[in-house]
Amino acid sequence: MLIDVHELNSGYGKVPILHNVSFNVSEGEMVTIIGPNGAGKSTLLKTISGLVRSKSGSVAFGGQEIAGITPDQAVRKGLAFVPEGGRPFPNMTVMDNLKMGAYSNQEVLKTGILEEMFTLFPVLERRKNQYARTLSGGERQMLAIARGLVSRPRLIMMDEPSLGLAPKLVDEIYEKIRTLKVSGLTVLLVEQNTSYALEVADRGYVLENGRITMEGPANELATSDHIRRAYLGF
Amino acid sequence: MIETATQSVITGTMMGIIYALIALGLSIIFGVMNVVNFAHGDFVMLAMYLSFTVGTLFAWDAVITPVITVPLLFVFGLITYYLLIDRTLRQMYVVQLAVTVGLQILMRSAALIIWQAQPRALQYSFIQGNIEIGPYSILTSRLVGAVVSLIFIGGIAYFLNKTWSGKAMRAASDDLDVASLMGVNYHRTYALTFAIGAALTAVAGGLLMSFQQTDPQGGVRFGLLSWCVLALAGLGSLPGLIVSGIIVGIAETFAISFIDPRARLLAVYAIFILVLWLRPRGLFGRK
After folding, report:
1. Which of A52, A75, A77, B3 is positioned for an S-S bond with A104, CB 3.0–4.6 A?
2. Chain A positions in Cβ-Cβ contact with residue B174 (cut-off 8 Å)
3. Tens of pLDDT along A69-82?
4. Mutation test of the interface with chain A: which of B182, B187, B189, B238, choosing the one with the most A Cβ atoms within 10 A?
5. Is residue A24 within 8 Å of A78, Cβ to Cβ?
6. Taking CB atoms and an 8 Å cutoff, what residues of chain B touch A80?
7. What architecture is the B2-119+135-278 domain classified under in CATH?
8. Domain map of chain B by residue range?
9. Nearest residue of A to residue B186 by CA position?
């Protein structure tokens, strides 16, 4: 198992958000965590990456305990996080944004990773000297995913890559995510867009009110009554 | 009249470029760390005193003293950061304000104890004299000051755009959380930012001591000047900072030439207030 989260509790200040959340992701697997707005999905990823401090519980990554780690240490362990909305650095060029992805592991730039990213996202090569603030929403999201991949992480966590994008762009982003899956990347995908997430993922967990309420293979979740009624609108 | 005005423009431009260098330190600290350093002018004051001491001790020309004062101010910046600023980062603005204003008072008092109240100046340096062009003269010391300032501003631009540390500073300025997700340790990046901001005042201090004196209250003027330049320029544009420095320098020189030498800060205040009133994000600022 690459990451094993056990009974994780977390929140902001005195407000608890996550209650005894447990899940795991194996090497090469794509796992999705779905759930409604406000369920704690973002908080979960922020806690694992160290942006939010956990209150209790354990996060084992590659067999090593990383709960309570700071974000700059987490990325050095091989954990990349693409935050909600992508959040590329607006006043830096596309190229500098990508290079910042290699900040924790500067040698990686010599491995041809930027060329790989330009092959995966050709639009980024065309825009490489533009400031990120001039990019469209879809381009920003692609830049953020590419920036996360540049460090050659062992696990990449994505927070709602489809958020705020037009349906055509969501298709495009998910096509890229599928490509990444085929290449063997380990992905933890948090989504509100349940149908897309369950279509691409191997397994899924349902997070509601800060608790894991269901889990199982993605295709089983997609056909379960609860998911169909509450999330897929059948 | 025209001649006086032209001469004021020449002198003001030279002074303004040095002001831009001073404001650059304030600008990167504010821009990267979102910390308002009210003691910035007093760092200039301290730098000038150190330049005086080094110049007196080794019988050096003021313009050479930064060789020693830059490392000193860099270390002083690091110590200040870790001892004071780092602890105020996640606090309310008023805490930062109290800490940097307290630092200001501390530095002025320390200067008073160490160097006493009377103004200090170095012997006239080898860059005295003028370059005469027709009816106008350029003071060599101002010209050297302006050229050295431009070189250092250019050096900082290179550092920010081309080095890993510089990129980390810009990333932290744009989005601190995401920068830390990239592996930026913000304590270290902030410490470096603050130390560079302090070290830049050492360069300016050496340049200023080649033609000025300093006293324990000297920081007031440079603090105000650098805030005015920064307000005029806005954040994020180095050329904008230079142009704004020049505007402030010329305004100051005009006030000296046409009103009264004591009115120099009046012009600076007037610009400051006008900018805050008419264009709070500055002439060249983003967002």
Report:
1. A75
2. 89-92
3. 999 999 999 999 99
4. B182
5. no
6. 181
7. Orthogonal Bundle (1.10)
8. 2-119+135-278
9. A72
